[in-house]
Amino acid sequence: MIGAGLLLGVAVSAGAPILLAGLGELVAERAGVLNLGVEGMMLVGALAGFAGARATGDLWAGVACAAAAGAALAAVHALPAAWLKVDQVVSGLALVILGDGLTRWFGRGLVGQVAPSFEAAPIPGLSGLPLVGPALFNHDPLVYLSLLLTAAVGAGLAWTRPGLSLQLCGENPALADLSGVSVARTRVLATLFGGAMAGLGGAWLSLADTPSWVDGMTTGRGWIALAMVIFAGWSPARLALGAWLFGGLVALQFRAQTFGLEISVYLLKALPYLLTLAVLILASRGRWRHRLGAPAALGTPYTRGER
Amino acid sequence: MRIALEPRAPSALAGPLAVAAGLAAAAIAAVALFSAAGAPPAAVLTLVSEPLGSAWGLSETLVKTVPLGFCALAVALALKIGLWNIGAEGQLYAGAAGATWAALTLPAGGWPVALAAGALCGGLWALAPGLLKVRAGVSEILSTLMLNYVAIAGVEYLVFGPWKGADGFPYTAVFAEPWRLPILARRVHLGLVLLAGLALALWLLERRSRAGFEVRVAGASPEAARYAGMPVQRRLVQVLLLAGAAAGLAGAAQVCGVEHRLHAGISPGYGYTAIIVAFLARRGLLLSLGVAFLMAALAVGGDGLAMNAPGVSPAVVEIVQALVLLFALAGDALARWRPVVLR
């Protein structure tokens, strides 16, 4: 059983960046904003986190930089999407290109440098439990943060007044407007939150996973996070399961030999993307379909007095 | 205080003005980036003089226009019916693999066979997302994108494995002469003519055929098309198949015309840049070629930076592209809506 616990632990930690970024996108989409720029926001988060931690020598300052940078890039999408009715698909794609370009530009001097990095911090008493211990309680602080934020986002959306207003903006913005909620402000804040979370996901990559800066180091995780939100049917708990499943696959790429598996490295490379496809197909089929539901106003701009 | 949008009177000038605004804003940003990197602002002109100021530069620009143009057609075509083909990059790699398979294994034939094999593989690579879209309602944005990573992993498998060249490096053997595209001048190959021909043919198909009309109607309003009894689902699949074939030709032309062998780095992201191209060209097929030329010029200019402005990272090209897109997008919105502040 020790082996199974370890495997789960690897999946939970490798899934953390997808979970963090996915939670942010989930909140933005529940508010009605489709932001395809997750990959770009994760990249700026990864670079800002690394640069911040390096400059200050303080890991949490780096994490704060990562969240701020992710949110700043999200603002480039949020403001035009909320107030100018721009095409959210194009604007989101622009974020990916912009994030990639900006991080290549500003990251040049940081390639090959070192910064402080997060270490595993086992939780006393809990990390020794069979199965659950290695799976959940023997991680670095950012992974714990991903667990806490999953619970917080789930509870916040379901049980708090701002959470319910936010959902209303995504389902029926006209009704939200009538009930005194500022749709534009809610959507902007939700998108900024999404950017900050993607930034945190990036920071895990550059501060905990492989403590370094490498151009394009997110390698498609932002896109997987987007697919996972659909797979999860916009539910935070199911998002966590999806993220861990894919985290396990990503981790397997690098550890297949250690586990004594004889699988082609190229097949392993393609597997997360093929499985995402499989998941998207499953998510759109029969029994699943009626249980899933995209926010009714997802990607649709809202102006008062228009239908 | 609240911001609201009032519709403006439609104007034919709005579109071109929005793109011009995007270019102008991006140029200003480029100058700022150059200054920040310690290069004289005038070095920005490298981005123009390098690709267009010499026969060599112009040739390089045209060489890059070919794959970018084919991919832009692949994106613009899908946009006609309202689909986002984010997968031109993967379709390009699939096409390159198909052409390479033909060139390395078929006993007889030549570059036309290789191009056909490439178009077929690219088309099949896009067919899957098309079928998934109409059969299962899977978002083509995500499915085409996921297949990019799969295609690139597939090509890596081929060139590191069964197709590895005799010298042990991760690329295939060099194509024999009949499998190479004829050269027009310098490094410019026949692919340029084929690109122009394909754009024209697709344009005629769109404007003059019943299928083209149905695609345009379905793109403007799927409900209207369905109500009129048009085969919208079938057209969606056909359009993606055709789009994939165009992107497949990009890869086939690249391996048969420029590289003369397959390796994992044949595209620096043409399929992604093509999305910007198709959007800026407002999904126009012929206009896409013009914009592809400009973007190719920008890419060649970026390559020239290392020589003329050593402090400036070639990443500036990507930043400028993204800014052109964002500003054109905002300009486009502002041309259609007038923001007013309500108190």
The portion of residues assigned to helices of chain B is: over 70%
What does the overall shape of chain B look like? globular
Strand content of chain B: under 5%
Largest interface: A-B, 44 and 49 residues
The ordered H/E elements of chain A are HHHHHHHHHHHHHH
- Figure out the total of helices of chain A: 14
> Main beta sheet of chain A, described?
none
Give me the number of helical elements of chain B: 13
In the predicted model, the low-confidence regions of chain B spanning at least 5 consecutive residues are none
Question: What is the CA-atom radius of gyration of chain A, in angstroms?
Answer: 19 Å
Helix share of residues of chain A? 55-70%
Main sheet: strand order of chain B: 1-4
Along the chain, the helix and strand elements of chain B come as: EHHHHHHEEHHHHHHHE
Descriptive keywords:
heterodimer; A: 307 residues; mainly alpha; 14 helices; 0% strand; B: 343 residues; two-stranded antiparallel ribbon; 13 helices; 4 strands; 70% helix
Task: Explain what the structure shows.
The complex is a heterodimer of chains A (307) and B (343). Chain A is mainly alpha-helical and 307 residues long. Chain A has helices at residues 2-14, 16-30, 38-56, 59-83, 88-107, 132-136, 141-159, 161-171, 173-178, 183-209, 221-231, 236-255, 265-283, 286-289. In chain A, 70% of the residues lie in helices and 0% in strands. In chain A, helix 4 (59-83) runs antiparallel to helix 5 and helix 4 (59-83) packs antiparallel against helix 10 (183-209). Chain A starts with a helix and ends in an 18-residue tail after the last helix. In chain B, the strands form two sheets. A two-stranded antiparallel sheet of chain B has the order 1-4. A two-stranded antiparallel sheet of chain B has the order 2-3. In chain B, helix 2 (46-52) crosses helix 3 and helix 4 (88-105) crosses helix 10 (232-259). The longest helix of chain B has 28 residues, at 232-259. Chains A and B meet through helix 4, helix 5, helix 11 and helix 13 of A and strand 1, helix 6, helix 11 and helix 13 of B.
